Amino acid sequence: MKNIAILGATGSIGCSTLEVVRNNPDRLSVRALTGGKNWQLLAKQALECHPDLVVIADKSAYGDLKNALSGSQIRVEAGDEAIVAAVEVQPLDAVVAAIVGSAGLSPVMAAIDKGLQICLANKETLVVGGSLVMQAVKRAGVDLLPVDSEHSAIFQCLQSAQTNPLHKIIITASGGPFRQFSSGQLAAVTPEQALKHPNWDMGGKITIDSSTLMNKGLEVIEAHWLFNAAYDNIEVVVHPQSIIHSLVEFSDGSVIAQLGWPDMKLPIQYALSWPTRWSPPLPPLDLAKVASMTFEPPDTTRFPCLAYAYEAGRAGGIMPCVLNAANEIAVAAFLRRQIGFMSIPAIIRKTMDSFSNKQVTTVGQLLEVDAQARETATSLLSAEVA
Ligand code: NAD
Ligand code: MG
């Protein structure tokens, strides 16, 4: 039995993780659940899987959550510090890191320091704190297992590598809903249009990131850290069908790919079952039904966020943290209809340009940069029009 904590249980990845738990009741036991604001769903999940602890980030929801769980013997806590402390629940073997944004960094660092296995969906953790996270992983000797479908694919492809170094990583991108939009059409897209992803059903922030190609940019930085790959050896190819989840090229030119339906249950389950494999969580892949797979290069003129992410990744230091913070602010403002779609890259560009790069050595320093970059990006919002 593997004892797990699900951080961000009420989100898209959190809910899919609970489906994997439901399918594997004799293998997985949930000891802690955390959520942001949605106390109703968190309470429902807790009453279903009886963890020892539930934590809600929003302190104003504590009373409602506590009432909903009265008589259940489940401990209830609230606030950001309590989320970080959730990884101290015992016994615990693994943490599914499914909080969205840089808010996931501190809990992941705490889980690494506790020596827990990390099933990482929260890519922003590696974008913001890649260097410090990887140092901590090495120091603690923990397994950092990718949940992101592309990285799960690369991880699986690499298992055929033996001792051969990989030559190149090829990350596939669906291209999002606006793949064929002109620059003029892009300027006018609405949150409703951007929230309709052609293949994947995901949380709001990552769905917008997919439509700007920032999601792919964040994934390039994530791959850099997870697989110790130079940016020149990480390539992105648009594959609108989302069946090939990513590929690895070896030094003899041979390319290995991992395929599957676009559904997160498989990569989530593999992170939890690794190094073994459990029964399939989905119907088998039917290539005749897929019928055709196509590929094209990404267009960084219409989708500059991908280029900005490469730039920030290559620059290193605080730049990926600044990029991520500006993106979080801009995406939230777009969803509130405060700015237009193309203001998202504009705000990221201006925020990056207003920071001088430097190296930082602690998570506290990174969180300070994160806060400063959010302030800068917020101050730029009023100059943009919706
Ligand atoms: P989501 O918005 O659906 O869920 C996010 C979860 O985090 C929710 O439980 C929310 O309550 C919680 N949360 C949000 N802000 C918080 C805060 N400040 N403090 C504590 N908890 C907070 O997002 P999602 O789509 O499930 O994505 C989660 C992470 O996984 C993201 O980093 C995303 O990039 C990554 N990811 C998601 C998918 C997917 O298919 N959804 C695929 C690959 C990677
Ligand atoms: Mg992905």
Describe, in plain words, how this protein is organized in 3D:
It is a single chain. The protein is α/β, with parallel strands linked by helices and 386 residues long. The chain folds into 3 domains: 2-146, NAD(P)-binding Rossmann-like Domain (Rossmann fold); 156-305, no CATH class; 316-386, Rna Polymerase Sigma Factor, Chain: A (Orthogonal Bundle), CATH 1.10.1740.10. Helices cover 46% and strands 15% of the residues. It contains 17 helices and 11 strands. The strands form 2 sheets. A 7-stranded parallel sheet has the order 4-3-2-1-5-6-7, with helices on both faces. Strands 9-8-10-11 form a 4-stranded mixed sheet, covered by helices on one side. Strand 10 and strand 11 (255-259) form a beta hairpin. Helix 6 (123-140) packs antiparallel against helix 15 (319-335), helix 14 (304-315) runs antiparallel to helix 15 (319-335) and helix 14 (304-315) runs parallel beside helix 16 (343-353). It is globular, with a radius of gyration of 20 Å. The termini are far apart.
Features:
Rossmann fold, alpha/beta, binds nicotinamide-adenine-dinucleotide, 15% strand, single chain, 386 residues, binds magnesium ion, Rna Polymerase Sigma Factor, Chain: A, 3 domains
Give a topology summary.
Blueprint: E1 2-7, H1 12-23, E2 28-35, H2 39-49, E3 53-56, H3 62-68, E4 75-78, H4 80-85, E5 94-97, H5 105-113, E6 117-120, H6 123-140, E7 144-146, H7 149-158, E8 166-173, H8 183-187, H9 191-194, H10 204-212, H11 214-227, E9 234-238, E10 244-250, E11 255-259, H12 265-273, H13 287-290, H14 304-315, H15 319-335, H16 343-353, H17 363-381
Parallel strand pairs: 1-2, 1-5, 2-3, 3-4, 5-6, 6-7, 8-9
Antiparallel strand pairs: 8-10, 10-11
Magnesium ion binds next to helix 7.
